[in-house]
Amino acid sequence: MAFSQADICNLALSRAGGHSISQITSLGEASTEARQCAVKFPHVLRSALRAYPWRFAVKEIALALLGTGAELALGGGKIKDNIRYQSLFYYQYPEECLQILAVSPVNGKKGNYGAESAEYTVERLGDGTKVIVTPCVQAVLTCSSYADDPSIWDSLFLDAFAWQLAGELALSFGADYSKVQALQNTAQAAFERAKNQDCRESAVPCRFSSYLEARK
User: Fold this and answer.
1) In this structure, are residues 53 and 206 in contact, taking their beta carbons and an 8 Å threshold?
2) What are the sequence ranges of the domains in the chain?
3) Stronger pLDDT, 215 or 31, i.e. the higher one
4) pLDDT tens for residues 163-196?
5) Cβ-Cβ contacts under 8 Å for 44 (sequence gap 6 or more)
6) Could you tell me if 98 and 146 are in contact, meaning their C-beta atoms sit under 8 angstroms apart?
7) How far apart are CA 91 and CA 85, in angstroms?
């Protein structure tokens, strides 16, 4: 059975508890519950998807080249005095990307986010454009994307997400601290179970760029 966003919100509302909390038919209806779900759902989902590379949300995107460092400097972009930066490639940061897992050449192995990524940094040009800077030619991005279709979610992730959303909704509806804390603790434990199951479905562990880790 495929769950809709409203189904998940109703599961979360039931877990949040309280006799005054009603079920909804859609996130767009004119009720307090629906309005709270419409606000909380994308916020909680983005946080959950960014926190771990869930396999159902992993996506490969061919990056759109904006130019080299030297070209962008001539065009009024962010100028780097370092000659190495002038020879690097600047790519548009995809809006749907929540977390970069790897940057690889176009002829690399599909889904190769378990391998070492090419070097990259995330920066902004003078006009505010968010870019990925890398020496990689014809780069392909492997990332966690904003996957808001519950029909593709793993069942354990769906359960954990509903617990997390319940905690946020309970807070909005005035639940006491102990109730909210209990929901958050349940969500954390559920996410750990979901992560363990997600890891079992591949023999390749997810790793990130050692270059990026060194910059932290």
Assistant:
1) yes
2) 5-53+156-200, 58-146
3) 31
4) 999 999 999 998 899 999 999 999 999 999 999 9
5) 161, 164, 165, 168
6) yes
7) 13
